[in-house]
Amino acid sequence: MIRKFVLLSFTLLSSLMFLVQLLSLQIFNQNYDELSLNNAVEKRPVYPPRGLIYDRNGILLVANQPVYDLMVIPEDIKVFDTLELISYLEISKEEIIKRLRNVKQFSSKRPSAISRQISKEKRALFQEKMWKYTGFYFQKKTIRDYTLPIASNILGYTSEINSAELKTKNDYDLGEMIGRQGIEKTYETILRGKKGFQFFQKDRFNRIIGSYEEGKYDSKPETGENITLTIDAELQTYGASLMQNKRGGIVAIEPLTGEVLALVTAPSYDPNLLVGNKRSKNFRTLVNDTIAKPLFDRGLQAEYSPGSPFKTLNALIALQENVITSQTIFSCNQGHFYAKGAFMKCHCQVGTRNNLLKGVYNSCNSYFAKTYAKIIGKDSTASFGLDRWKTHLEQFGLGNYLGYDLPIGKKGFIPGNSYYDRWYQKGRWGPSTIISNAIGQGEILTTPIQMANFTAAIANRGYYIKPHFKKLNNKILRDSLFNKSHTLIEARHFETVIEGMHQVVEKGTAKVAKIQGIEVCGKTGTAENFIRLNGEKTQLTDHSIFVAFAPKKNPKIALAVFVENGYWGARWAAPIASLMIEKYLNGKVKRTWLENRMLNGSLISEYMKPLSGMPFKINE
Amino acid sequence: MNNTLFFRLDWISVLIYICLVSFGLLNIYSATYQQNILMSFNLSTVVGKQFWIFIGCVIISPFVLYIKSNFFEHLSYIFYAISILSLLGLFAFGQKISGATSWYTIGSLGLQPAEFTKITTALVVAKFLSGIQTDIRKRNYLFKILLLVFIPVILILLQPDPGSAFVFFGLFFVLMREGLDLKWLFFGLGLIVIFITTLVLNPLIVCLGIGLIIFIIYRLIKKSNNKLNPFLISLGACVCFSFSVDFIFNSVFEQRHRDRFNIILGLETDTKGIGYNINQSKIAIGSGGFSGKGYLNGTQTKGNFVPEQHTDYIFSTIGEEWGFLGSSLLICLFTLLIFRIIYRAEKQSNIFRRVYCYAFASMLFIHFFINIGMTLGLVPTVGIPLPFISYGGSSLMAFSLMLFIYLNFDSQRLL
Q1: Taking CA atoms, what residue in A is nearest to B182?
Q2: Contacts of A29 in chain B (CB under 8 A)
Q3: ipTM associated with this complex
Q4: Which is deepest, A414, A549, B167, B284, by most CB within 10 Å?
Q5: What is the pLDDT of residue A424?
Q6: Bigger pLDDT: B400 or B213?
Q7: Residue A262: closest CA among A551, A601, A515, A579
Q8: pLDDT grade, residue B247 (50/70/90)?
Q9: Percent of chain B having pLDDT more than 70?
Q10: Which fold has domain A66-143?
Q11: Where are the domains of chain A?
């Protein structure tokens, strides 16, 4: 009888339907697992402290310090002493009301920060009163701590990642620290370490109600690796102090290894300014200083005319190209006519006859103009000659990025055919048109680190090693990463030029750079420069330039010093370079009179001239 | 007598009952679990209350079991009257809890008369149908019995507690069993099928389909010289119904009812608002996997993501923590219990007792079907508890009483 089975079959059918649904939900559909985890489990990252940064001698430059965010869970707040809290946080009553409202809008049940990065000392003051503030607590974080007020341009800084960056960097969480510039940015992956995770059970209001499965899935963070820099902290500090109240840069390289010993830019800033809760205010101040530009690394980013040090390169190219020999003599009569009606001035006496050696140490403009004309004129057309000249320079690392391990830099500029063809039309230019290149003026632009690098190549008699900032102790790795970049100049051509550079210091333009007991080789430079002032091209006081290496045999340090608007190379750049060499090689400086002159010397008044709005004199 | 009752008792049902209630207590504890609070039988905790109600049920069970079935038979109208009065009394003395006036509150205890009305209605229907002259094929008898059922249904709907009211439709199975014309069954099923297909598809397609089916049936049974008319009439009725469903659904139903249907039929996905419960419940059950996350380890349960988890949505806790194994076992236990009751009811020679047992099985089925179907996302949300499992004193007490009365009737079968 069918009636007896109606309810039975309904029951059976329903049960079967339920079992099928259970099968499909629990066995065949794997999505629900993840959904429930997203739902009910909070994966909270645990950040490891960032790796520490040391100088080449093991001096700690960058460490970590704890700071505290004051967190609040709005629904847990009981009546509290508002006056005490606002005086502690140094904010107004309106501000705290606004912040509490914002926080509550986000969630009244989840914690959010009401004040960030409170120092450990400041926290200690408040900690004992915390019992009065139900719903508030401190959350620890680590931020950078800089032991020395130097090298901010090398080290870079860290700050919290922003939401725009998060879109491309999915390995980061909102609020996580990320390296912004310098070493912190380049070696972010090494310094950052590996974050760990803690899993928490949430309820439907997203509140944490305990650890998930007693921490079974938690992973420990791995501390970031420490980094040793090639920088010598003492030399860096010394360089920074010599450059105070001046603008410019010092780049010092160990020629044999390409390790950068010091990279000074002036003016700079104390790296501790960009840490903690004053960070954004300080950063804004630095960014807004568009005149002194403290965030602009003049060692890496400033493109200047190299001036007379460039003559050494022209000499080497001419020797290699066989257009002169070390004995070639050119005469100079306070300059010379390089073309009809075109005279290039020089400081040589009338009737001076210079060979290459004298040409270098007297820095004779005529000598190098004539040499340069020979290089360019060697072939049937000037464009062939210019090509060859440019190729040589590129082998010295000019006109392109050097490839060092900091995230910023400039290419500089070495003019080529296409450049002059565009300026003068094809075939309408020749050696005399571009003669300024002979003496490092004209169209050529180099950065101080490029100048230090070609000085290192001269010191090495024909090769350089890519400048770098992170010291590698593993020899095999070091050799594979940093192999010799050879120039196209044979080693034998260097000796005359190096001897010339030695004579520069011994009896030439930079006798001030002479150091007792050290054979210093150098070359001064004094580069004309112009700015646009009220729409008019205005000449400013020349830049003071000096490149040097020492000792002459087995060079240990090669450097370029650039002092903006310092006039003669021998006035500022040469003494600074010389003091740097003495400091590095001897450990201490004996010539305190020179040291004091450099430490106390200021070019501020020089820099104020174009800003004053009044007519001013240059090259005083 | 003692020994004889002991041997006559349906121990399988008793065993299933004890299993279900104990399993229910375990899961109520888990659903209301908070760290640092141990399992306790303190009356202040939810699980403690449920436990003591269970003990109370065990204590009164001998009294219920020893009473002669005649007692229930003779007093059924009185019981029924009392329960109707208690439903009426709610409008005067009832406590309004979450929008429905369904409770009397005595101290900290709440009493839900609708739960007990299920027993009395089952008894009164049994009594009425066991009348010698009663024949529900006749209109006036059918009308009377529908009146008996619809009085409590309407009173409960007025509370309003549509879930509990819906349970009384289980009595349809009883009428079916007791001789109601089978055409009503097909009629009812047909309506449901047309209702759902109309919502999912659209009236026009449904009408074409119906036309096709009726045409095929007509061709198949043509030889027994049927007239064409009844087929045309039923076709016409179906088409009218299909089009009116569209109208009724969109203009008579309230938005929340429409939402519930739409979500179940997959016409609308909304996991934050109206669909939140069902979605979270499915996540909980789905994430349980084959063997579950383990007792007290359900993350969904601990996080209280599914609302009403110790009452109506208790099955999601079971699904999450006990997995496919636990939840399918529970479904099997329920199926077994319903089968067992129907099987024993069919053996009754006494119509009163048989109808009562059948009514009990039907109501149990409705609860089982609606509640688990709802947590699994197969049936629109209707708030009724899972018998013996869900937290709820009145529900546990009423279902226990119903079961004891069934055991009583069953034991008296051979006397």
Answers
A1: A3
A2: 286
A3: 0.90
A4: B284
A5: 86
A6: B400
A7: A579
A8: confident
A9: 92
A10: Penicillin-binding protein 2a (Domain 2) (3.90.1310)
A11: 38-59+148-227, 66-143, 233-612
